[in-house]
Amino acid sequence: MTNRREFIVQLSVGSTTVLAGHAFAQTPMVAETDAQSVALGYKADTAKVDKKKFPKHEVAQKCSNCALYQGKPTDAAAPCPLFAGKQVAGPGWCSAWAKKA
Predict the structure, then answer these.
(1) Main-chain dihedrals φ then ψ at residue 2, nearest 5 degrees
(2) pTM for this entry
(3) What is the C-alpha separation between 49 and 12, in angstroms, rounded?
(4) Dihedral, CA atoms, 39, 41, 43, 47, nearest 10 degrees?
(5) In this predicted model, what pLDDT tens digit does every residue of 21-66 receive, in sequence order?
(6) From CA 31, how far away is CA 11, in angstroms rounded?
(7) In 3D, which of 22, 42, 13 has the Cα closest to residue 30?
(8) Domains of the chain
(9) CB count, 10 Å around CB of 6?
(10) Where do runs of H (alpha helix) occur along 1-101?
């Protein structure tokens, strides 16, 4: 009985992990033209940020090194709480950028 219970628990944990990974992969990217993106000056490439409009921006500031980025620094894209249900590009930037601790 113990082996059967362990199998069922492992199966449910494994299924949840696979489904979570699949859902993350299916999350759409935020568009630079979305209203929230425009309001925050989001660009998918930090090098393309308007320096006149955002004079405090530095090229070293990227979504991947922002405190709000919900992925690993090496991830190409990850969710951001400012863009609910969407991912931002790792090399992107917006005016809400905050240095990761």
Answers:
(1) -60, -40
(2) 0.74
(3) 45
(4) 180
(5) 544 568 999 999 999 999 999 999 999 999 999 999 999 999 999 9
(6) 37
(7) 42
(8) 28-89 (4.10.490.10)
(9) 10
(10) 2-26, 35-40
Closest CA to 95 of 64, 60, 53, 65: 53
CB 45 within 8 A of CB 89: yes
18 pLDDT tier (thresholds 50, 70, 90): very low
Neighbours of 74 (CB within 10 A): 7
Q: How far is it, in rounded angstroms, from Cα 85 to Cα 93?
A: 17
Q: What is the mean pLDDT of the chain?
A: 86
Cα–Cα distance for residue pair 56/59, rounded to 1 Å: 10
**Mean pLDDT, rounded, for 89-99:** 97
Contacts of 29 (CB under 8 A, 6+ apart): 44, 77, 86, 87, 88, 89
Backbone phi, then psi, for 77, in 5-degree steps? -155, 155
